Amino acid sequence: MTVPSAAPPASQQPVPPSAGPLEGLADVLSQGAPTGAMSPAELTVWRTMLRAQAKISRRLQADLLADHDLALGSYDVLLHLGEAVDGRLRMNDLADRVLLSRSGLTRLVDRLQRDGLVCRESCSSDARGLFAVLTASGRTRLTEATPTYQRGVREYVLSRLDEHDLRVFGAILNRLAAG
Fold this sequence. Notes:
- The protein is mainly α.
- It has helices at 25-29, 40-68, 72-83, 91-98, 102-114, 136-156, 163-178; strands at residues 88-90, 118-123, 126-134.
- The protein has a three-stranded antiparallel beta sheet.
């Protein structure tokens, strides 16, 4: 006599071949906030923001590389140094401003130094501290690349928003940056 076995729990049952890997994801995502799940609308907004940021960054990068042989990250470093008093910032402060890890910034500054756009100087008050300093060549390259960067920001972002949109978008970004 054969005894029927109990069915395995749902989590251990095989997925039918017709079910795709994302089948049921909408149900999981919309099951209440206590677990921290995102609703489909929230997930859409999040993904759209990431896509927009990536697309804008890629376009700015392409423009800067084509016109000035300068990557977007390099431009960002030069811009922050150009805005700083005496064109110099401590490496830790610069890393915070350009949103790079310390090691990532070190590698980027190494490249900029090889290209003669930045140099490093020791900090007199802290033997372990280093400054990144904008060179004259770096300032020239920054000055040449800034119109390209600003044109791209205007074309890819600002021109697509009216004055009301800019105020609302600015307020939203401020809330996000403050959190």
